[in-house]
Design a protein that fits this description.
By secondary structure, the chain is an alpha/beta fold. The protein contains 19 helices and 14 strands. Helices cover about 35% and strands about 15% of the residues. Keywords: Hydrolase, Signal.
Length: about 600
């Protein structure tokens, strides 16, 4: 299938409307030679050596020397597009990560230069086939006498720098060290045709040097780690964060060998995450048997308890019904009418024919689709910015990949025939060029479509081509218990549930107009369940008029109508750190 024309149109609109910014849903000058240092005895059996790089003199920790003006400018160029250096890839990865998450136009008006060192490695949780990345950034102004370490996980399925703008910025501005994990997802994609993947430094590699190397038949398909690792990384998100926290302490001990030792008793460790990263830190707070964490702050967490639908469940309902429902009411569509209304009307007709909705005309059918979504649990607030998810094809992007991971499917056994590849002019998979593959690690968002890799919908047909694949997923979810893939999918969805029993002080922040991770399916029931179970030291901040993507606030359609979430999350961190310093525990808002 050819690239989505609606998405292309929206991306062109974004480029024109937001100071030259590249697609917001995707995505000094040289690093010192890499040093290899040994690990602590506690982690030797599960880790690769640390790779240590220094970032000073026009190559800092926060922006790789780009500064705010560089982040707002064109994507960093490469001297040799077919063979970029590790330093060039790092700069592009940081560029893409800032641009995909943060409102650089209106919210972030200045970014400090933060020199320091990076410590990179891999960790593997028990039973996993493949490792997750960990990366510690230690600023030069780190105070070893009053040490603070902030641990985080990338939002979405992003690579290791995925939280640099949301969490790294907060930590490094305040002289804290920060340690990241990509939580087993990320952008270490694999090319089955050539057997090439990605090395620890982000460059293209072969064989044993690959971070991710699945078993796959040689083909022009692309193996996406979150989709095809067969590890179900989401079930281990909490362990990823706890391993990252321990790695951060190990990195501090390597950075300051004469200090006498950093550990959980003398170093403040706070976990702070956004979206999927927020769910990961919540799970870490539930699983922290050893008291490694002092507190958790979670912003817009994609977290589910047993009584609530998972993201996969409400994404399915939304992907099928929201195109039709968008025809009712005055929610922004994010696209010109000609680009979305005919498709939305066709979806109404398709669903009416299948008996999903009622009504003899489009208006009645749209009202019926809205009623069904409301009955499922979508509030008016969660529906207000739904046009964003449809315009960017976010629901299918999530579903196509998550279906593979929940079914533990390999590249050669796609669920509902959703595959991923670079496409030729006729919409068919073609061989990936070296220059294209070289940018997967730095430029991709962790899911397709991004970095030139598209979704192939093998079931697409008819006047409403996206619907058959979605209906296949819906049937597998609700009627597929007798099929191998369906049974594994059901079991996986049970294994990712949170307990709502945090062991550490926890503060959750969530926008009431979040259309991707609605508060009614996630934070609100989590908090209610935790309080029913007698959990103390838990606060909940609901943020009116805030949605999921601060980066989208630069769009004219959202100007002055939505509130940024990240400043509220940073205030929550300030409040939690003040509590740890002896102040009062934060109250609900």
């Amino acid at each position: 299938m050819a690239p989505n024309p609606m998405r292309i149109l929206l991306l062109n609109t974004l480029r024109a409307a937001s100071a030259g910014m590249l697609p917001l849903v995707l995505i000094g000058c040289a690093m010192t030679p890499t040093q290899t240092v040994p690990q602590s005895e506690a982690t030797q059996s599960e880790a690769t050596p640390m790779l240590v790089t220094t970032h000073r003199d026009h190559d800092d920790l926060l922006t790789a020397g780009l500064g705010r003006s560089g982040l707002l400018g064109a994507v960093p160029a490469l001297a040799d597009p077919a063979a970029p250096t590790a330093a060039e890839l790092r700069k592009r990865a940081i560029y893409a990560s800032w641009r995909g998450i943060v409102d650089l136009v209106g919210t972030v008006t200045a970014i400090p230069v933060v020199p320091g060192r990076e410590f990179a490695s891999l960790r593997t949780v028990a039973g996993a086939r493949f490792p997750h990345r960990v990366l510690a950034q230690i600023p030069d102004n780190f105070n070893a006498d009053t040490p603070c370490l902030i641990v985080t996980a990338s939002s979405g399925s992003r690579g290791i720098y995925g939280a640099i703008g949301s969490v790294g910025d907060y930590a490094l501005r305040r002289g804290c060290a920060v340690v990241y994990t990509d939580k087993g997802a990320g952008t270490d994609w694999f090319n089955p045709r050539t057997g090439q993947g990605t090395a620890v430094d982000g460059t293209v590699s072969d064989a044993a040097a690959n971070v991710f190397r699945p078993v796959a038949t040689a083909s022009d398909l692309v193996a996406i780690k979150h989709a095809h690792s067969q590890d179900l990384p989401e079930a281990d998100w909490g362990q990823h964060v706890l391993q990252a926290a321990q790695f951060g302490l190990d990195a501090l001990n390597q950075a300051f060998p004469d200090h006498g030792g950093f550990d959980r008793r003398n170093t403040r460790v706070v976990a702070f995450g956004l979206s999927n990263g927020a769910a990961a830190v919540l799970r870490a707070g539930e699983q922290d048997q050893d008291g490694l964490l002092d507190a958790v702050v979670a912003a817009a967490p994609n977290v589910q308890i047993a009584e609530q639908p998972a993201l996969f469940d409400y994404a399915l309902e939304a992907a099928i019904l929201q195109p039709c429902a968008l025809l009712q009411g005055d929610a922004p569509a994010f696209l010109p009418d000609a680009a979305w209304k005919p498709k939305a009307e066709q979806r109404c007709r398709s669903l009416r024919q299948l008996g999903w909705i009622s009504g003899d005309d489009i208006a009645a059918q749209a009202a019926s689709a809205t009623e069904r979504l409301n009955a499922f649990g979508f509030s008016a607030e969660a529906m207000h910015w739904a046009g964003m998810n449809l315009a960017f094809d976010l629901w299918r992007s999530v579903l196509a990949a998550y279906a593979q991971t929940y079914a533990r499917a390999g590249v050669d056994a796609p669920v509902c025939d959703y595959r991923f590849a670079v496409l030729d002019a006729s919409g068919q998979p073609r061989a990936v060029t070296p220059a294209e593959q070289a940018l997967w690690w730095s430029d991709a968002s962790g899911l397709a479509p991004s970095a030139g890799v598209q979704i192939i919908d093998g079931l697409a047909t008819g006047d409403d081509p996206n619907l058959p694949g979605l209906l296949c997923l819906h049937r597998l979810r609700h009627e597929g218990m007798r099929e191998a893939q369906g049974l594994v999918l059901q079991q996986s969805l049970q294994s990712i549930r949170a307990t709502a029993r945090p062991k550490v002080p926890t503060l959750i922040v969530h926008g009431e107009q979040d259309a991707l991770i609605p508060i009614a399916f996630t934070s609100a029931p989590y908090v209610a369940a935790a309080r029913t179970r007698g959990v103390a030291n838990l606060a909940f901040w609901r943020v009116p008029n805030a949605q999921h993507f601060d980066a989208f606030l630069a769009l004219p359609v959202m100007a002055g109508k939505a509130k940024p979430l990240l400043p509220e999350a940073h205030q929550a961190m300030d409040a939690m750190r003040a509590y740890l310093d002896g102040g009062a525990f934060p109250t609900d808002r």
